[in-house]
Amino acid sequence: MPAGLGASAVRAALVQKRATSAVIFVPPLLVVLVLGMPWILLGLALLAAFAAVECLRLLDSAGHPSLTLLGIVLAVTLTVEAGAPADLADKAALLLAVGLVLAAVGAFGRRDPRDGVATWIGTVFGALYVGQLGFVARLGIVAPALPAGAPLAAIGSDSGWIALLVLGVWAFDTGAYLIGRRFGKERFLTHISPSKTYAGLIGGIASATVVIGLVLWGLGRSPVEALILGPLISLTAQAGDLAESMLKRAAAAKDSGSLIPGHGGLLDRVDSFLFAAPILTLYVLAVVR
Question: pTM of the prediction?
Answer without folding.
Answer: 0.88
